[in-house]
Known about the structure:
58% of the residues lie in helices and 6% in strands. It is mainly alpha-helical. A two-stranded antiparallel ribbon has the order 1-2. Helix 2 (11-22) packs across helix 5.
Amino acid sequence: MTASAQFKRSPLAMALLGILHLEPMHPYAIQRRIKEWGKDKVVNVGQRAGLYKTIARLQEAGLVAVRETGRDQQYPERTVYEITDAGRAACAAWLAEMVSTPRNEFPEFPAALSFLMLLGPLAAREELERRAKTLRATVTEMDEDAELATQMQLPRVVTLEDEYLRAIAEAELRWVEGVVADLAAGTLTWSWESLAPHRDSTTDEPSEG
C-alpha cells in the first residue's frame, strides 16, 4: 500500500489540498486564505503548529511537494508547496466520500446528554436554557453573515457550509427549546428513585437457554 493510500484524511488535510488546487502557497498564506474565506468555521487552523504538521504529513505521503523556498527582507525563509497529481486524486476521493457517507464524529453534546440525569431536572433545565440562548445568538449572527454574502453576490456554492451550519443550529435550537419546555412543565423529570429500577437495564447480558 502506498503512503498516499495509508494517509488518514482530516478536514484540515482536505482543506490544504483544496487550497493548493488553486495555486502553490506557503503555509502562512494558506492559513490566511482559509480565514479570509471564512472556512475556519469548519476547519481548525487556529494552531499554526498543527498546520505545519499536517503539511509535513502530506509531503511524506507524496500528496504535496516543495515548489520553492524563498526569502525577502520583510519575511523569514518560506517554503512554497504545490499539490501533486496524487494529491489531486486523493482530494477528489476524500471529498466524494466525505460528502456521500455520513460519519459518526462523536460530538460532545450528545455524549453529555447521555449522562444528563446526573445534573438533575432543575440544573439540566438551567444549562439547556444557557445553550438555547447561545444558539439564538449564533443563528442571528449566521443570518447577518448570510445577508452580507447576498449583498456581495457570492455564488451559493461557496457558502453551502454556512447554510448547513445554520440549518443544524436552528434544528438544535428548536429541539433544545422543546426539552426545556418539557422540563418546565414537569413532563420530563426524573429522580434517583425512578431511575434505580433501570440502572442495569442496558448492561444486563441476555440469559442463555
